[in-house]
Structure formats: C-alpha cells, structure tokens
TrEMBL record:
The chain crosses the membrane at residues 26-43, 103-122, 128-148, 155-173, 179-198. GO terms for molecular function: serine-type endopeptidase activity. PANTHER family: RHOMBOID PROTEASE (PTHR43731), SLR1461 PROTEIN (PTHR43731:SF9). It is a multi-pass membrane protein. It comes from Actinacidiphila glaucinigra. GO terms for cellular component: membrane. This is Membrane associated serine protease, rhomboid family. Keywords: Hydrolase, Membrane, Protease, Transmembrane, Transmembrane helix. Residues 67-199 form the Peptidase S54 rhomboid domain.
Length: 244
C-alpha cells in the first residue's frame, strides 16, 4: 500500500505563477504609493507646505503623536522628495514582492517605530516629515529577510543591497545637519524587527515523497508534485534556489 498523495495545493504551496502575480501586484502597489506621495507634494507645495506643518511629528508634542502615520507621506521641498523617491521605490518593491499584505504590515510597523523615535528623543521643536524612515526600514528588512526566511535568493539580494547602499547608514547616526538621524535609526530598527516578526513560517522539506502507485514525487515545501507533472523540474530548480 503506497503513501498518501498530495495535490500541491497545501497551505505552504507557492506556485511560480502565484509568485509572479504577487510581484506584479507589489509593483502596482508601490507605484501607487509613490504616486500618492507625489500628489501630496503638489498639494503641499501649492499650500506653502501647510500639510508638512500640520501633519509632521514634533518631539514631545502629544497633539502630533498620531502624525507618525502621516509624516512619511510628506516632504519639505522638491529636492527632499526627489532624493527619497528612487530608494523608496526600489526598497519598497523588494520588501513587497514576497507578499503585499506582509509589506503593508511592515510599513505600519516602520512608520510607528520611526515616528516614535523622533517623538521621544528628538531635541527642540523640529517638525519632522519624509519617507526616509520608511526607506531605512525597508532597507533593514530586505538585508536580513533572507536569513529569517531561509530563502537563498533573498539572502543574496540582501547582501547586494547591503554592499551597494551601506553608505546610507552614515545618516542613521548623529552628525548630519538638517537630517533626522533618529527617524532613520527608528525606521531601520523597525525593519529589522519586522523581518523577524513577518518571517516565513511555512514548514520546508527537502526529502522526496513517494506517490501511491509509482515513481518519486518532487517535494516543494510540504506540497509534493508528481514526477510526471510538467512543472516538476521547474519547481525543483526554484526550490533549490530558495525561490519557493
């Protein structure tokens, strides 16, 4: 009597088509997010930056505490938003392509940790806005996510991003005038914590399963594909790369 068969639709199954669809969804979500940021900048500029004054975070001002959720969408100048837009799109997409729901939860966490770092520890009455706290959060998340998820490809992406953008960390320490290093540091901490909180908890297996009446099945996570399935070789290769 042979072993039980599974149809590849188990709770840990992620098909290549689903992964591509999720990446496509992530692209449009991040693009839409960036479009909202730029539309708000236009409104902010025409209103002489009243939005930044009204919805920024000011240290120890209880009235501005809810603004930790609005400040990342606002900027103080065109140069400010232009310098943030490129890194924001790149790191947001890399953080989102594994799952938009997880990305939205991460964004909320990072916005809160970045904003609270400013609210608790910033000196003076500076009004702090900008997406750079989110950028640092996504950066931290992308760099270490592969270690927690045990995805080889994500680990390699993290190494490349860390090597390419390590200079960013210079503005997460005191000493850069006009820059809220506390917001950057708070965002970075939120991203690192998020990588652990939102890690992939699927059970992975690398031992071949057996079909009920024939040859071996290719196992991916806890959902084996029959050896005669036309996608079996593709699933095996993607699994070996840590893509599934």
């Amino acid at each position: 009597m042979g072993g039980a068969e599974r149809d590849g639709s188990g709770p840990g199954a992620v098909r290549p088509e689903e992964m591509i669809a999720e990446a496509r969804k992530a692209f449009f979500v991040v693009f839409g997010f960036l479009a909202v940021v730029w539309l708000l900048q236009v409104a902010n500029y025409t209103g002489h930056y009243a939005l930044s004054r009204d919805y920024g975070v000011v240290s120890s001002d209880v009235g501005t505490l809810p603004n930790v959720l609005t400040a990342p969408f606002l900027h103080w100048s065109w140069a400010h938003i232009e310098s943030n837009s490129g890194p924001l799109f790149v790191f947001a997409f890399l953080a989102a392509y594994r799952g938009v729901g997880r990305f939205l939860a991460l964004s909320l966490l990072v916005a809160v940790t970045s904003g609270l770092a400013v609210w608790f520890f910033e000196q003076g009455n500076a009004d702090t806005v900008g997406a750079s706290g989110l950028i640092f959060g996504y950066f931290g998340y992308v760099v270490v996510r592969g270690l927690f998820d045990r995805h080889l490809i994500d680990t390699l992406i993290g190494i490349v991003m860390a090597a390419s953008f390590a200079y960013m960390l210079t503005v997460a320490v005191p000493g850069t005038p006009g820059v809220s290093w506390l917001g950057h540091l708070g965002g970075l901490v939120g991203g690192l914590v998020g990588a652990w909180l939102f890690r992939d908890r699927r059970v992975r297996g690398d031992r071949p399963a057996r079909r009920g009446g024939g040859g071996p099945a290719v196992t991916r996570g806890d959902a084996p594909l029959p050896a005669d399935n036309p996608r079996a070789d593709l699933h095996k290769e993607l699994g070996d790369l840590g893509l599934l």
